[in-house]
Amino acid sequence: MAEERDNLRLMHHFTISAHRIIAPSPGAVAVWRELVPQLAFEYDFLLHGVLAVSALHLALTSEVDKLANSALALRHYTAALALFRPHLDSITSSNIYPLFAFSCVVPVYVFGYPHVSKFPTNPLPEMLEMISVMRGCAKIVGSGFRWLESSPFKHLLLQPTDPSQALAPEIEDALTGLQERNNQTTTQPALRDAYETAIETLRESFKVAGNMPGEQATALPFPVKLSAEVLMMMQEGDPMALIILAHYGVILHWLDAVPWTTGWGSTTINAVNETVEEDWRGYIAWALQESQKPISKA
How far apart are CA 41 and CA 142, in angstroms? Predict the structure, then answer.
């Protein structure tokens, strides 16, 4: 009976409040408030995912029953993952919608849960693990895009950026510096090309962030499009890969007002600064400067 009451309490909180921390736009609010709960009652993995995010939101925003809600978030998320994985072997026009909804839940949980457990002193290993998880979820969109774009879930899809859109001069200068450093120091042609693609993905991500200031969906383009090769080089501590990662940290810092992304940007940038040698630090000077600017919580 106590478990049933907890589940009802969490679902109620999701529909009146917690869904808003996922919705990337006003058009997506109704999807998360109405359609996703309906699907959750049909698919247990999504039900557990919704309850996990609701419990996490309570733990992030209130000291009342913080430990109990943190434990509920972990329990529901663990159950959700176990039920979710088998569905990835067969993505259809029927299950694409709950699978996609759950893939949107995952970043909220993986970024948010360390805030209610133990935020890492060195965030780089956790950050790279989160990027790996988000890359995996992106495969769902690739498999079912044709169904998603003609459904109510189209409001959750990021729109392509305008290739002619100009970035602020300081951002463009920082990215140009990354390109120049890549050309100077990366001797393997394939890896140099992979880094160049990652920098272009950063450029696109900064455009998205400029078009949707403060929207949590802007945290997604870079990790979901990052190549396995560049992610591996980040995991190995390659300085070129890490200074690219530091610039993704700027986008996260701009989301510091979002409960689940608070702190990840500045701590990632600082960790990269402490990790790379002195002759690399000049290439993240702008990112460091940007990470020191306060972000309004309004």
Answer: 25
CB 261 within 8 A of CB 127: no
Q: Find how far residue 52's CA is from the centre of its chain.
A: 16
Q: Which residues contact residue 145 at a Cβ distance below 8 angstroms, ignoring those fewer than 6 apart?
A: 157
Residue 91, phi then psi, degrees to nearest 5: -90, 125
The pTM of the whole model exceeds 0.85: yes
Contact between 249 and 123 under an 8 Å Cβ cutoff? The reply is: no
Which residues fall within 8 angstroms of residue 8, CB to CB, at 6 or more apart? none
Q: How far is CA 130 from CA 109, 168, 296, in A?
A: 10, 28, 25
CA pair distance 277, 290, nearest whole angstrom: 20
Q: How many CB atoms lie within 10 A of CB 1?
A: 5
Q: Which of 10-14, 104-108, 233-237 has the lowest mean pLDDT?
A: 104-108
Q: Which of 60, 263, 287 is nearest to 174 (CA)?
A: 287
Distance CA 291, CA 298 (A): 18
